[in-house]
Amino acid sequence: MISDYHTIIYGKGPGRKSFLRRRGGCGMMGKMGGMHMQYRVDKYGNELSVLGFGCLRFPQKNGKIDMDATRAQIRLAVEAGVNYFDTAYVYSGSEAALGEIMESEGLRDRVKIATKLPHYLIKSRSGLEKMFREELKRLRTDHVEYYLMHMLCDLDTWEHLKALGIEEWIAQKKASGEIGQIGFSYHGGTDMFCRLVDAYDWDFCQIQYNYLDEHSQAGRRGLYHAHAKGLPVIIMEPLRGGKLVNLLPAGARKRMADSRRSWSPAQWGLRWLWDQKEVTVVLSGMNSREMVLENIRAASEARVGDLTAEDHALLAGVVRIIQEQVKVGCTGCGYCQPCPKNVDIPGAFAAYNRYHTESRAGAKREYLKCTVFRKNHTHAGNCIGCGKCEKHCPQGIEIRNELKNVQRDLEDAKFHLFRRVLKMFKIFG
């Protein structure tokens, strides 16, 4: 059990970096109202707040980012010690809003900015440079500390980027100081994630991970693999876009309310992540003052090893209650892979289950990410019914029939129109 001290070690060999921060000790950054932000480190020893500010869901007013509310929340977060801000080119208005606030409030030197390359829009080396320049202009800065390949989905896509000269471009940007560290964000299965981790000398990575996705997407196995390679892991969707708060079944909420802990559903989700030493930063798409304060307090209190066997049993029960509503009992083990026709079976089933238990719109976006936002489309419609997958499924799922259901619910007219547009412009496929 770690109590007074919190130690994280990253890197490989004798040159690896270690981090030791005493709770409440001298030099502690981000003190606010008795709360002390905690920090873990990247592979070069830079201190990162365990709570990161996800900039996808800034508060809105009249269909646009509410700059006054966003400004107040960002300043509150920075004063409390939050120093990692995550945005992306395709987050509508996010880069520009973040850049304006950082400049006008004089906060740039106190934070580390992570943004992302929409590689799926890039067709040439010159296009790559043009995109990056536009991002710097939006952010009103001459560098970013962390830069990600956005939704890097498979090795074919990485090979395509390499053919455009991405490795040489990265080396130049790091040498000039315009990019501090390079990484990738990922939506997809565990096996491909591990292969991507091994494909390049990355500085960090970003995955969707939460107590419901423990064994889907990159999952715990992917988290451990990245950590073993010395990569700090940034966590996105720790609460499934709020679904592990707002859409929890009544039985799950009662379990949490009846526990000896006085934690909200949001705190249960965040603390489960901070309990793991392999997690570096947990991003939260905070969009209210109350949310910022609640998350800061949880980040100041949570420690690796805090969760007891009783706590883990409670969350396992919550997961069982949620899974009672799912359509397909896929655990995301990946034994059905690879498919001869490249169908991402675990990804398809994850989106299908989400369609019937959480958000239909969110499920369709997730399905697009794990199918047509790949160089080789991996949607359920590719299935030829060979049955090879079913021979290896530990759960005995009738995969071929279930993939037909996926097609019925997720591959609607809009899906096929979007797929054709991508093919037409040769962005993917």
User: Which regions are unreliable across 5 or more consecutive residues at pLDDT < 50?
Assistant: 1-29
Principal-axes shape call: globular
If you average the pLDDT, what whole number results? 88
Helix content: 40-55%
* CA-based gyration radius: 21 Å
Q: Termini separation (Å)?
A: 49 Å
Q: Please give the largest β-sheet.
A: 8 strands, parallel, barrel
- Total DSSP E strands: 16
The portion of residues forming beta strands comes to: 15-25%
Strand order of the largest sheet: 7-10-11-12-13-14-15-16
Folded structure, characterized:
This protein has 429 residues and is α/β, with parallel strands linked by helices. Helices cover 42% and strands 15% of the residues. It is built from 17 helices and 16 strands. The protein has helices at residues 67-79, 94-104, 125-139, 155-163, 166-176, 190-198, 219-228, 243-246, 250-258, 265-274, 289-301, 309-323, 345-357, 360-370, 388-392, 399-410, 413-424; strands at 5-10, 17-22, 31-32, 35-36, 39-41, 47-49, 51-54, 60-61, 64-65, 84-86, 112-117, 144-149, 179-186, 204-208, 233-236, 281-284. The strands form five sheets. An eight-stranded parallel beta barrel has the order 7-10-11-12-13-14-15-16, surrounded by five helices. A two-stranded antiparallel sheet has the order 1-2. The longest helix is centred in the first third of the chain and has 15 residues, at 125-139. The protein is globular and about 60 Å long. The relative contact order is 0.10. The model is unreliable at 1-29 (pLDDT under 50).
